[in-house]
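Please, is this right?
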Amino acid sequence: MAHGDITHVDIPVTDHQRATEFYGSVFGWKIETYPGFEDYPMWRAPNEVSGGGLAPRSADFTQPRSTVEVDSIDETLATVTALGGTVIAPRSPITETSWWAVFRDLDGNEIGLYEGVTDTSAT
């Protein structure tokens, strides 16, 4: 994907099995768990393009969050803060070749950022 593309949507859930059955039945999503990401089942829509994760719900994560791919999380967060946004979660590793972060925009919306490549082919 290119800089600015929405890569996925995280949906906060309290019960992965229940959510898997629900979203699989409602939308026909294919939902799989990958080694190393057992607490984060990944969903893929029938178009094989749209997707995301069923992320653990927490006090800080209660609403779905879109994640946008960027060339550089650090540069994007610098732009966000220069324009008045707030960093909620700084750049953190997912794997050795991928990272994520979250910021809050000027209207209070939380947007995720993704940089890199996450290889799940070993499954």
User: Anything to note?
Assistant: The chain is about 20% helix and 40% strand. The chain has a mean pLDDT of 91. Helices lie at 16-27, 73-82.
